[in-house]
């Protein structure tokens, strides 16, 4: 049994089964709050807790899924290629929207983290919460944060963004496909982009573009804005 648990196939199968269960629940109930990734995370945590299987044993196979994060992200370039004429046509408003999204995300995170009395290390860990995981972990480590905390924050942000985004579009009567994609990509990175692809090809293309540019922008903006905060308020 021990050899089976420590097999890379074990963690991979548990992850896939949990996600398929989440996708089934989402398909049946048809509510955005039942996000397949969220359900899969809950199921895996419950399974590991009830069976007393350590995270390290599970992650022998679980990390294999992480490997595919990079090619999956690169594959988002295809819908962008198909819709690149929209980017050329709206390059200034798109870049302005992405920049505003990155700045507001960092500023709001710093403000709320300090308002609720979080430590400096935890604040730094939360700052890159709205960008894709590989870049977010690098930014967190560079600034002195805790990368595992950053990963959790990124996942939660992505799930919440993919759930609340379509709802806010309806409430605020946002119908512009480019704007919808930019909003989703700048706030909820890859998970939000996956949801944007479900909504439409244009939304998915703009979200993928935004996710990439916002990640690069955050690499430079996050340290600069944190230093500015320290200069002004401390």
Describe the structure.
The mean pLDDT is 85. The protein contains 13 helices and no strands. Helix 2 (8-29) crosses helix 3. It is globular. It has helices at 2-5, 8-29, 36-51, 55-67, 69-74, 77-82, 84-89, 91-115, 120-126, 133-143, 147-171, 177-199, 201-233.
Task: Spell out the blueprint of helices and strands.
Elements: H1 2-5, H2 8-29, H3 36-51, H4 55-67, H5 69-74, H6 77-82, H7 84-89, H8 91-115, H9 120-126, H10 133-143, H11 147-171, H12 177-199, H13 201-233
Structural class: mainly alpha
**How many E strands?**
0
Low-confidence stretches: none
Distance between the termini: 55 Å
Strand content: under 5%
Average pLDDT score? 85
Dominant shape: globular
Q: What is the string of SSEs from the N terminus onward? A: HHHHHHHHHHHHH
Number of helices: 13
Secondary structure: helix percent: over 70%
List keywords for this structure.
234 residues; mainly alpha; 13 helices; globular
What is the compact description of this entry?
The chain has 234 residues and is mainly α.
């Amino acid at each position: 049994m021990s050899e089976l648990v420590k097999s890379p196939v074990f963690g991979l199968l548990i992850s896939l089964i949990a996600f398929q269960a989440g996708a089934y629940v989402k398909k049946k109930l048809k509510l955005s709050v039942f996000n397949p990734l969220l359900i899969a995370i809950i199921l895996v945590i419950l399974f590991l807790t009830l069976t007393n299987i350590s995270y390290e044993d599970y992650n022998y196979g679980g990390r294999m899924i992480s490997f595919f994060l990079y090619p999956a992200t690169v594959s988002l370039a295809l819908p962008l290629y198909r819709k690149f004429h929209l980017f050329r046509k709206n390059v200034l408003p798109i870049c302005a929207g992405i920049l505003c999204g990155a700045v507001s995300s960092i500023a709001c995170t710093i403000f709320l983290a300090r308002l609720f009395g979080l430590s400096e290390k935890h604040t730094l860990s939360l700052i890159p919460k709205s960008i894709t995981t590989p870049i977010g972990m690098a930014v967190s480590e560079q600034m002195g944060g805790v990368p595992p905390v950053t990963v959790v924050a990124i996942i939660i942000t992505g799930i919440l963004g993919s759930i609340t985004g379509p709802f806010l579009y309806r409430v605020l009567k946002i119908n512009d496909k480019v704007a919808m994609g930019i909003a989703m990509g700048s706030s909820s990175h890859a998970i939000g982009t996956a949801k944007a692809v479900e909504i439409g090809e244009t939304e998915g293309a703009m979200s993928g573009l935004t996710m990439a540019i916002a990640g690069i922008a955050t690499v430079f903006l996050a340290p600069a804005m944190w230093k500015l905060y320290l200069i002004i308020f401390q």
